[in-house]
Amino acid sequence: MFIKSFIFKFKILRLLFLFLRYIIISINVIIGCFILSVLIDKILPLPIFLFHIYWIIILVVLLSFLFNLLFRINETLKKPYKYIQDELFKNHLLQHPDELINAYLLENSLFSKKPLNFSKELSCIFLKDIENILKKINISEITGFNRIKKVLPLNIVLLSIIFLLYFLPPQVIKPNIYKILFTRRPDILGAFIIPKNIKVPYGKSCTIKVIIEKDYDMYKPELFIKTEFSKKFMKIQFTDTEVYKLQKIYKYEIKSVENKLFYRIKFRGINSKVYAIEPIVLPEIYDIKILVS
Questions:
Q1: Torsion angles phi and psi, residue 241, rounded to 5
Q2: pLDDT digits (tens, 9 = 90+) for 251-270
Q3: β-bridge pairing 261-267 and 198-201
Q4: Is the pLDDT of residue 184 over 50?
Q5: Which residues, 6 or more positions from 39, have their beta carbon under 8 angstroms from its beta carbon?
Q6: For 65-74, what is each residue's pLDDT tens digit?
Q7: Using CA atoms, how far apart are residues 66 and 29, in angstroms rounded to an integer?
Q8: Residue 139: strand, helix, or coil
Q9: Which of 29, 74, 162, 245 sees the fewest Cβ atoms within 10 Å?
């Protein structure tokens, strides 16, 4: 049953091609969009919510590719012969587009135990002609594997660009990569928070500083503070601003730390970790006795 085995082989290779194509296209889209987002953010720093929208759109596109993949898989499993006969008829190898499916059904009838109501000799000649046509074609071409070879150079180019931008000076991607991919770190890209978690003597002052890099000084950080007894953070205005070595520094001074305070910074749409300022009572020495023996 040559035709049946050919269609089965085509089905396996077609499914493999569809999976590989989806993976390669997805990788190309993700890498290409990632490179574009890094370059855009380097030239014109943007709020993080715009990148959220940017990646949501890309996710929707990838999901549409996935639905297309599932549709094509279903079509391949249900009507594998349709793709083959369309390709053969397009290349003028079949006189009629239904010849392949007729040959497939005829082959099954010949190998069944049911009595035949047609000429077996003519059927064998017809099947032999279809088999000869199938033997001439390259199955990798009709499954689509030749198309994968055409897009592989694009993958190599994109991966090379990623390598160059990440490892070679000035390492354009390296400082941006965690922000673009939405990972969280104690310091937000472009902003450095001081003093983070700290313990200060009871009743003493403490200053919260946010240092903004020059490339991001068009954005203003926001400070949120709450006590250990309150449930919600309150937005607080910074009390002072200064510029030092092209970096803008925002300051907020807590004149007397008497209760445990929690604070966080919001910058370019990203919330920092929650830090704590905790008062500690230092021991006081009232009397010292020195014994000399």
A1: -140, 135
A2: 999 999 999 999 999 887 77
A3: unpaired
A4: no
A5: 172
A6: 999 999 988 9
A7: 13
A8: helix
A9: 245
